[in-house]
């Protein structure tokens, strides 16, 4: 299996510094700052990138599980809302809400929900984030 690599550089102190995160594949490079992480500043932050990774992984996992069971996934759109808070133990990701909309012909909602939950549990990113409360809201469209 391939190894995925990403790099980050931070310049200066926490509040006044700035940094850049990039993927070795060249597909992404973005700036991040204290404001983009702890306030509502422009640029990205590590939690946003974790959310993108989780949403992407989940969409692929759900599509795969459905297809392997003989269902025909037309599309799966996933979103991950990552909650980042300052707690008594310091800054922490305190929860992730996966929101998915899927177009899957000829499947009933109960069956779909079983696949949706299974994909949440089986997605490699979900497994990596197992110490975080992960909830799911999956809908057929």
From TrEMBL:
Q: What is this protein called?
A: OsmC family protein
| Pfam families for this protein | OsmC
**Which residues belong to the signal peptide in this entry?**
none
Instruction: Provide one Gene Ontology biological process annotation.
Output: response to oxidative stress
Question: Which residue ranges are recorded for the region named Disordered?
Answer: 1-20
* Ranges of Polar residues composition bias in the record: 1-10
Superkingdom in the source lineage: Bacteria
Could you cite one Gene Ontology molecular function of this protein? Answer: peroxidase activity
């Amino acid at each position: 299996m391939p190894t995925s690599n990403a790099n980050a550089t931070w310049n200066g102190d926490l509040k006044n510094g700035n940094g850049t995160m990039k993927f070795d594949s060249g597909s992404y490079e973005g700036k991040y700052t204290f404001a983009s992480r702890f306030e509502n500043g422009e640029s990205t932050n590590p939690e946003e990138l974790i959310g993108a990774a989780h949403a992407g992984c989940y969409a692929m996992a759900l599509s795969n599980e459905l297809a392997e069971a003989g269902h025909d996934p037309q599309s799966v759109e996933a979103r991950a809302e990552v909650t980042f808070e300052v707690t008594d133990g310091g800054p922490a990701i305190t929860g992730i809400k996966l929101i998915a909309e899927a177009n899957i012909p000829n499947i009933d909602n109960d069956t779909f929900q079983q696949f949706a939950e299974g994909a949440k549990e089986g997605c490699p990113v979900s497994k990596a984030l197992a110490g975080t409360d992960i909830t799911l809201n999956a809908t057929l469209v």
